[in-house]
Write a structure and sequence with these properties.
mainly beta, 1 helix
Length: 270
């Protein structure tokens, strides 16, 4: 019986298949190995050959209008990307927000119209606006809210800082001099995609994962026992014996911790 392939609605917005050649670079595949040839990241290897699309996360071209030429799929991220061309002829890739269409005009500047796709400083964005691709340090490029379907809500601006509610429900202050793009990241249906078979993951470069409880005691702390038995530990551990699941990994002396107004709400595990 032949498997039928169905296109999800969100992929119907794509208008161009082949990437812009001048904005692509070939990346060398490592197979999860470091410079000494040893595996540093497990479950990485193989996969279809792909080009890296050079996406502009900062705002290097200011106050020059640009037209959206195409909405494209990017194999290196879960969000769609938009090919834009400035009036001076220069082309760039940006993360595409929801509702951005081919032919739309966008502009990056210190203070511009609060329209989807436009990019400006947080201090000039109206309260209650949803933003994405947010900078943590002025003119360093966006690092927050870049995944598919994400966006942060600008709650208010006070004392030189904008207060934002992040996608994780964390509320933090960010300098008003930082730039952010208006809108919500595209491809919000990404989390509903079912990859259906193991071969799809292999094409994405993801190798199989083996449960620790299925291993021998010499290979994993969860291993050993007759048949299907518990891990025999109070808390789960990594293959190297370090605590896993629910352990805080954030640095205690992180400089930006003082700007967090409210920590994210912990989700209850089912």
């Amino acid at each position: 019986m032949q498997r039928k392939k169905t296109k999800m609605k969100n992929f119907l917005v794509l208008t161009k298949k082949k990437p812009e050649k001048s904005l692509t670079v070939r990346i060398k595949r490592t197979g999860g190995r470091g410079s000494d040839g040893r595996i540093t990241t497990r479950h990485v290897g193989g996969g279809a050959r792909k080009l890296y699309r050079v996406v502009e996360f900062a705002q290097k071209v200011m106050d020059i209008p640009a037209e959206v030429m195409a909405i494209e799929y990017d194999p290196n991220r879960n969000a769609f990307i938009a090919l834009i061309q400035y009036e001076n002829g220069k082309k760039n890739y940006i993360i595409a927000p929801e509702e951005l269409k081919v032919g739309d005009k966008i502009i990056f500047g210190e203070k511009v119209e609060a329209k989807i796709g436009n990019r400006m400083k947080l201090k000039n964005i109206p309260e209650g606006t949803m933003v994405y691709n947010i900078e943590l340090q002025p003119n360093k490029g966006g690092v927050l809210a870049r995944a598919a379907g994400t966006g942060a809500i600008l709650q208010n601006y006070e004392g030189g800082y904008a207060k934002l509610k992040m996608p994780s429900s964390e509320i933090r202050r960010i300098s008003g001099e930082c730039f952010a793009s208006i809108g919500k990241v595209s491809n919000s249906e990404y989390r509903f995609i079912s990859w259906s078979k193991a071969g799809t993951s292999r094409k994405k470069g993801v190798r199989p994962t083996v449960r620790g409880s299925a291993m021998n005691p010499c290979d994993h702390p969860h291993g050993g026992g007759e048949g299907r038995t518990g891990i025999g530990l109070k808390h789960p551990k990594t293959p190297w014996g370090k605590p896993a699941l629910g352990v805080k990994t954030r640095k205690k002396n992180n400089k930006s911790s003082k700007l967090i107004v409210k920590r994210r709400v912990k989700k209850k595990r089912k």
